[in-house]
C-alpha cells in the first residue's frame, strides 16, 4: 500500500497510561500498523459529510472501548502494536456486494444518522486482508445537505481547523485521531461514562477566532504527519471534551 493512502497523527504529548511512545524516532522504528475504516457509500443514498466524520470518530472509540481490544482480548496485541507506532488510519469506501464482503470480516459496524462505518482491528501496513485492500480510497467526497447547527455545549466536540481543506476520507481519519487522543487523556471514570452513553459527540469546523482559542487551551491537538493532502505538522483537530475542558479551567 502506498503512503498516499495513509493518514497518521503526530503525537507530541500523552498521558502516563497511554501506550503512545513519546519519542517519534522510537515510533518510526517499530513495525507499522494501520487501523482500517470502511464507510458505506451507496450511489443512491450517500451519507452526509458531518455524520460520516462523527460516525468514523465513534467507530474508533467503540473499538478502543471494546473488551477485545484490551487485556487478553483477541485484538489487544494488534491494538497495542498499532498504538506503539505511528497512529495510522485509512478510510476506504464500499457499496453493494463490497459492503457485504467487509461485513463478514471481524470488526464492528457503527451506525449514525445517515452513515455506516465499519472499523477493523489494526493490520500491518503491508498485510491488508484482500477484501479490504481491494477497496477504493477515492470517492469519499461527501456533502452536507444543510449547514450543521451549533453543537450542544454539553457534548464533546471535535473542532476542525477552518484553514484546511480536506476530502471527507481524510477528515474522517482526522476525526478518529482526535477522538482517540481525547480517549487517552480522559480519566477512567469519564471513559466509562462516555462508552456507556454510546460515545455521543459532535464534529464542527471552528471559526478562526475560536480555533485560536482552542489551540491555546491545552486540549488534545492532532498534528498530521503530512502523508496526504496537507503539509506535515498541520494542526487539524482539537478534541474539546467537557471533562478535559474542566480540568484546564
TrEMBL record:
EC number: 3.1.1.29
Gene3D superfamilies in the cross-refs: Bit1
Entry keyword Membrane: no
GO molecular function: peptidyl-tRNA hydrolase activity
EC supergroup of this enzyme: hydrolase
Keyword Chloroplast appears in the UniProt entry: no
Residue ranges with Polar residues bias: 1-10
Biased composition (Basic and acidic residues): 18-27
Protein keywords: Hydrolase
Span list, region Disordered: 1-27
Signal peptide: none
Any single Pfam family the record assigns to this protein: PTH2
Catalyzed reactions per annotation: an N-acyl-L-alpha-aminoacyl-tRNA + H2O = an N-acyl-L-amino acid + a tRNA + H(+)
Protein name: peptidyl-tRNA hydrolase
Organism: Streptomyces kebangsaanensis
Amino acid at each position: 500500500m502506498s503512503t498516499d493512502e495513509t493518514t497518521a497523527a503526530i503525537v507530541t504529548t500523552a498521558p502516563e497510561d497511554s501506550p503512545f511512545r513519546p519519542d517519534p524516532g522510537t515510533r518510526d522504528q517499530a513495525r507499522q500498523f494501520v487501523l482500517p475504516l470502511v464507510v458505506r457509500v451507496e450511489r443512491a443514498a450517500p451519507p452526509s459529510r458531518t455524520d460520516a466524520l462523527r460516525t468514523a470518530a465513534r467507530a474508533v472509540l467503540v473499538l478502543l472501548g471494546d473488551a477485545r481490544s484490551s487485556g487478553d482480548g483477541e485484538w489487544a496485541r494488534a491494538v497495542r502494536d498499532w498504538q506503539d507506532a505511528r497512529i495510522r488510519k485509512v478510510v476506504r469506501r464500499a457499496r453493494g456486494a463490497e459492503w457485504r464482503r467487509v461485513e463478514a470480516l471481524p470488526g464492528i459496524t457503527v451506525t449514525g444518522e445517515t452513515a455506516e462505518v465499519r472499523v477493523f482491528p489494526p493490520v500491518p501496513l503491508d498485510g491488508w486482508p484482500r477484501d479490504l485492500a481491494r477497496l477504493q480510497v477515492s470517492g469519499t467526497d461527501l456533502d452536507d445537505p444543510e449547514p450543521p447547527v451549533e453543537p450542544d455545549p454539553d457534548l464533546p466536540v471535535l473542532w476542525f481547523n477552518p484553514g484546511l481543506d480536506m476530502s471527507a476520507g481524510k477528515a474522517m481519519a482526522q476525526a478518529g485521531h482526535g477522538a482517540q487522543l481525547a480517549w487517552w487523556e480522559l480519566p477512567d471514570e469519564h471513559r466509562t461514562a462516555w462508552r456507556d452513553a454510546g460515545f455521543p459527540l459532535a464534529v464542527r469546523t471552528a471559526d478562526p477566532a475560536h480555533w485560536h482559542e482552542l489551540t491555546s487551551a491545552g486540549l488534545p491537538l492532532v498534528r498530521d504527519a503530512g502523508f496526504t493532502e496537507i503539509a506535515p505538522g498541520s494542526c487539524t483537530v482539537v478534541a474539546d471534551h467537557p471533562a478535559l475542558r474542566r480540568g484546564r479551567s
